[in-house]
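$ ./design --mode recover --in tokens.txt
reading tokens...
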């Protein structure tokens, strides 16, 4: 009997353990993404698979309604405008599996699709607020008073852009007549026009294969030289008559042929004439020596341009040969590795050249290609351009929206916008949009580096934990001390088997740090049991390491070129009242103004995601570059301006919930059912064994009395027993 009980217990234990292993294996199968064949690979690789929950981004802007008063020292009054809702579509690209699938490397391409049906208005709605790029520009320049100094190098480049785009192409056209006439002489055939044309076409075909089978005929009544006739056709702005006729569809081929033929004849002639390596080098030669125009400024050839009369250094210094700078040296000075087209390099040049004590001739020549006299000549010319041109450039940038306050459409604020001032100071990164729409893989690769995460294959507790974020393993030179990249990524996966004692850490790309998540309690989503998490209170606390000096605000100034960018809860909820009281128009909602993440505890999958982050600009009086005495002298400092809060949310669909209940929960139900079935089976076997147990009990009792019993069969075939008394005396 004991063996039967033991057998039943073993069966119950084994089957229950088997079911648990089956469930555990199923959870691992759902969570671990270690190859393209993994069960949830498509949901991991992109966020918009057919049965995936939609990830929404809703922008709520703060529109300043009293801008002129704010310019004159008043506090801002804002009106909340929104939501403007977008579908957030993420693709993981350039996927590379590492260490046999234990790690994976990828880049993230993030796109946004505007959803007008869910929005309060079109994405062309106009919003007025502080310009996030402007504090960054002040940080680069050192203050408003130095902005015009900082943009002088970029202003000089504007003149070069004009020479490259207008003057040099015109110079090529002006050079064509002589060069083409010279080539014409090589082809002359006096017999008749057609014979000449055949000869010319055959010769030019060698220069430009696009000419093949071109159907062109000359007007015999008004014969023209073939090359010059072609030139006239393509230069209608000079008022030339057309003296040959193109067959239908031939014009495009003629344009392609003409460019090849011209570049093959005219451009080499110009390069040889002025001894430069490429066509654009003519601009450096003209700027440094004014030789190309014979000492006359290019600006005199184009009346009405915005450029000063002596925009070239060679024209500014006239015939002074000591001040001239050859083409190669001009190119190195302005556009070399430490070229002065860049605002960031000006301070380096001034420090190296202006102070005679620090002057190092070898270093200056190697770095900028100029000697002492040429460096001094440039500095004087620079002061001339600073006085005559930079203020115009600065005024134009502010007028186009590059000042402290700006007016932009919703799409420009969020998706793509080239800030006019930022385009001058940081032309390699002129985009001032808040989100940035990565519509191509190339854009994504340009904006950030790749990520590397654990897949959980070797350790389930490391599932989707970063080892590298945007190409970095440690965040350096931003906070008071280096911050290692760690924590789970933002793709909706945590480690499995959680309970209310489980705290989580997630690396957040908005806050650029490892965020602490604490459990609040159990929640139900469409029949799926979850644990609700929220950001720990320490997120908003004053923190010297993170340069957080104001309660309720996360300081991200170091990540945005000096822009004093502060993140907070929407409506500055839980922030220092000293600053929240300065803004009229924010209405906090404690129930909605916090981040909530609901996680299915068995798998660690996020089933409800509700994060909101507000972007604010702080006019920090402790920063010397915020002494805005030039363009915004009356604007009040020590004010944190709310710009926009972004609400990111996604949740289980009915189909997702049914899938969880049908797979995961079915397994747990099966475990419980099997357990009780086996318990019931054990009870049934126990009942069957009761008669034998009763007989055994009687035998033991009779033995103790010194008697025994025997079984006999009755008349109807049933068994009966008869006790037999042992008469033997002890």
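writing sequence...
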């Amino acid at each position: 009997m004991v063996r039967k009980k033991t057998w039943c217990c073993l069966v119950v234990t084994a089957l229950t353990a088997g079911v648990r292993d089956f469930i555990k294996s199923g959870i691992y199968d759902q969570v671990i993404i270690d190859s393209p064949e993994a069960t949830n690979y498509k949901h991991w690789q992109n966020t918009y698979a057919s049965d995936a929950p939609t990830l929404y981004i809703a922008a709520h802007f703060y529109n300043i309604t009293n801008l002129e008063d704010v310019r004159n020292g008043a506090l801002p009054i804002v009106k909340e405008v929104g939501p403007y809702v977008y579908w957030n579509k993420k693709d993981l690209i350039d996927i590379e599996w590492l260490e046999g699938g234990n790690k994976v490397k990828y880049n993230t391409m993030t796109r946004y699709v505007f959803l007008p049906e869910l929005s309060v208005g079109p994405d062309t709605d106009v919003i007025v607020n502080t310009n996030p790029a402007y504090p960054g520009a002040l940080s680069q320049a050192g203050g408003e008073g130095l902005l015009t100094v900082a943009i002088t190098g970029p202003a000089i480049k504007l003149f070069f852009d004009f020479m490259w785009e207008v003057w040099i192409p015109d110079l090529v056209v002006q050079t064509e007549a002589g060069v083409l006439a010279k080539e014409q002489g090589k082809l002359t055939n006096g017999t008749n026009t057609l014979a000449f044309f055949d000869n010319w076409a055959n010769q030019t075909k060698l220069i430009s294969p696009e000419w093949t089978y071109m159907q062109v005929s000359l007007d015999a009544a008004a014969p023209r030289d073939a090359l010059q006739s072609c030139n006239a056709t393509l230069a209608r702005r000079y008022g030339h008559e057309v003296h040959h006729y193109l067959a239908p569809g031939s014009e495009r081929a003629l344009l392609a042929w003409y460019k090849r033929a011209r570049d093959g004849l005219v451009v080499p002639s110009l390069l040889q004439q002025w001894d430069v390596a490429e066509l654009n080098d003519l601009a450096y030669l003209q700027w440094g020596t004014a030789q190309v125009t014979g000492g006359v400024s290019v600006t005199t050839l184009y009346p009405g341009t915005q450029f000063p009369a002596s925009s070239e250094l060679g024209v500014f210094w006239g015939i002074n040969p000591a001040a001239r700078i050859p083409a190669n040296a001009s190119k190195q000075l302005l556009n070399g590795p430490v070229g002065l087209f860049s605002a960031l390099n000006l301070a380096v040049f001034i420090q190296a050249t202006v102070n005679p004590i620090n002057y190092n001739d070898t270093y200056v020549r190697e770095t900028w290609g100029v000697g002492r006299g040429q460096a001094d000549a440039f500095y004087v010319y620079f002061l001339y351009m600073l006085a005559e041109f930079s203020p115009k450039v600065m005024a134009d940038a502010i007028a186009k929206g590059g000042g402290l306050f700006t007016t932009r459409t919703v799409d420009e604020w969020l998706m793509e916008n080239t800030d006019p001032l930022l385009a001058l100071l940081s032309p390699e990164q002129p985009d001032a949009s808040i989100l940035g729409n990565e519509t191509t893989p190339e854009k994504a690769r340009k904006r950030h580096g790749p990520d590397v995460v654990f897949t959980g294959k070797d350790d389930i507790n490391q599932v989707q934990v970063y080892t590298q974020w945007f190409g970095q393993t440690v965040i350096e030179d931003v906070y008071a001390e280096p911050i290692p990249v760690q924590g789970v990524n933002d793709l909706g996966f945590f480690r499995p088997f959680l309970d209310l004692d489980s705290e989580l850490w997630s690396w957040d790309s908005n806050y650029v740090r490892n965020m602490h998540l604490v459990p609040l309690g159990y929640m139900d989503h469409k029949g799926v049991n979850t644990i609700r998490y929220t950001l720990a209170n320490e997120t908003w606390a004053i923190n010297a390491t993170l340069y957080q000096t104001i309660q309720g605000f996360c300081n991200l100034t170091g990540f945005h070129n000096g822009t004093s960018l502060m993140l907070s809860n929407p409506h500055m909820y839980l922030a220092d009242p000293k600053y929240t009281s300065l803004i009229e128009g924010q209405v906090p909602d404690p129930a909605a103004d916090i981040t909530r993440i609901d996680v299915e505890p068995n798998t660690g999958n996020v089933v409800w995601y509700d994060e909101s982050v507000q972007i604010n600009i702080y006019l920090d009086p402790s920063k010397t570059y915020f002494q805005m005495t030039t363009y915004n002298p009356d604007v009040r400092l020590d004010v944190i301006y709310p710009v926009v809060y972004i609400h990111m949310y996604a949740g289980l669909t009915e189909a997702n919930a049914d899938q969880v209940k049908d797979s995961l929960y079915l397994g747990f139900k099966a475990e419980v059912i099997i357990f009780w079935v086996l318990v019931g089976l054990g009870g049934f076997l126990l009942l069957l064994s009761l008669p034998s147990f009763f007989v055994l009990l009687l035998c033991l009792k009779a033995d103790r009395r010194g008697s025994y019993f025997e079984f006999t069969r009755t008349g109807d075939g049933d068994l009966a027993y008869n006790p037999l008394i042992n008469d033997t005396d002890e």
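exit 0
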